[in-house]
Predict the 3D structure of the following.
Amino acid sequence: MGLRLWNKSIKLAMRSRRRFIAFTLMYTVLMGWMTWNFQDFLYGEPDVLLLVVSIVSTLILSILYAWIVINYRKNEIATLKCIGYKNSNIRTIIIGELTWVTFIAFMIMAETLIHLTAGATYFYQQQSLAGKISAATYLEKTTPILNIWPVLATLAMFLTSQILGILVMYSKILKLRPIVALRVLK
Amino acid sequence: MPEVMIKLENVQKEFRLRGNIIRALVDINLKINAGEFVVLMGPTGCGKTTLLNVMSGLDLPDDGTVILDGDRIDRASEERLSDIRRRKIGFVFQDFNLVENLTALENVEAVLWPGPLRTKEINNRAMSALAKVDAHERMNNHPKELSGGEKQRVAIARAIIHKPRILFADEPTGNLHQSAATRVMELLKSLNKEMGTTTIIVTHDKNLVKYGTRLVEMEHGRIVKS
């Protein structure tokens, strides 16, 4: 039952095309930026301010997304409550959409960074083989361009911020009585 | 003795509007038997929609008792009301309230998604409900591709898929032209006869009285004829 609702929530998310594409792109860019900040923080020259700014941006974006989803789907949620959906059912549908967008954005970001890393490594390798840069420079430039830990830290940070967004959103779902929302319709 | 489906005793409901207290329901006492087709009529602002909302558990009364098919709902929690709505009640709204991102078939199926039925069974039931209201040919269309009458027929299919004991309809023909309105009312009437579903419709259209087995008239928050 929960799995079915989860599946339907993904379908609903994909059909809200504009919202889905806009937030997936924003999440992807923010995730990429945060990964580089974590990379610098853990392995390079740490810039704490940039890292904090990216974390705060993620939190704000997650809450904004949850808020938009609830407000945009107020009528839909009210209708679902009228036909017998419990708060927990609606929570499943909303969480499904939020986590799906996070997952897709993460996959795009990870795929992009892997290709960038591979491309850069190939470039420096060619430069090294052609004798344009020294072996020491090649090693310095490519070891490592990107580690796994910054990527995982970014994912953890995004999932945590989603939990915060979901908490904000859930209190709104609880407050939304079907009759109140149906009055909004009229 | 006929089975009592809905019983209201001394029901009161007030609203505050710009500092004024409006008595929407005043000492309402009403019994509706199983299988009845009740037309609830009255001028705009007389409290008929409030009464429907209170009877269906969408709103709670300030005072009094509401019993729906043996369940006391006037002080029930939101979770309990959700459960009663899912098992016993079907709603038809003036604005149809279909989910825009779902097809007609999915809108009907959505009622049963949180339940224990298998997906195939849900699909079969939805198709059968759509066939019953003669909307099965538009099952893959989204609401924006349907006419007002078609939307309302899909909404009726959604309201009956779980075989409710009671069907509430708030101005079901309010947004429809004459021929579509007639078709919707004939459909509600035939479902009432065929399935024995207790049906309560709210309207201000006097032409709809003929479809009911009982007329309840309201004025200034009171029942003046039942």
